[in-house]
Amino acid sequence: MSHRYTVEGIPRSGKNSQRIAYNKATGKRFTLKSKAAQAWQTSAFGQLVAQRGRKRIIVGPCAVTLDIYQRSDVCDVDNVASLVLDALNGVIIGDDSDVIDLHARKHIDRVRPRVEITVTEAA
Q1: What is the C-alpha separation between 51 and 22, in angstroms, rounded?
Q2: Where does residue 92 rank: exposed (0-12), middle (13-18), buried (19+ CB within 10 A)?
Q3: What is the pTM of this model?
Q4: Is the CB of residue 106 less than 8 Å from the CB of residue 13?
Q5: Would you say 94 and 59 are in contact if contact means Cβ atoms under 8 Å apart?
Q6: 102, β-bridge pairs
Q7: Closest by Cα among 97, 102, 107 to 119
């Protein structure tokens, strides 16, 4: 069974938008998502929860298809896909490690940037 979702807003990169921070106690470096990526993920969470309704979370193997509509050709599709998969965690799918098949396509839509997501439970 397939489930379709749409996250409105400018898709952000989950990798190229990172900031380096330092742990004050240990002095070790770690990365944080950019504010834009964090804002997109927070917005995506709310939109996905509203669209899921009473459907159960898909636990176990699944396939995910992403149609990523951007205003211009600025982000690598794989970097956007990683942030989308993070947004699906615990909302639509149990964990992104359950994704056994991933297809991502990039499109240009200057008027309505968004990500259309199809999640299919593996048989």
Answers
A1: 37
A2: buried
A3: 0.84
A4: no
A5: yes
A6: 64
A7: 102
pLDDT in tens, 26-45: 888 877 778 888 899 999 99
Beta bridge partner(s), residue 33 = 18
Question: What are the 10-residue block averages of pLDDT along the chain, 123 residues in total?
Answer: 94 69 80 83 95 92 97 85 93 95 96 97 85
Give the CA angle between residues 3, 88, 99 to the nearest 5°: 75
Residue 50: Cβ within 10 Å count: 9
How many residues does the structure list for the chain? Answer: 123
Q: Which residues contact 39 (CB under 8 A, 6 or more apart)?
A: none
Report the C-alpha gap between 114 and 48 in whole angstroms.
13
The dihedral region occupied by 60, where left means phi > 0, alpha psi between -120 and 50, and beta the remainder, is left
Question: Which tokens go with 117?
Answer: 């997501």
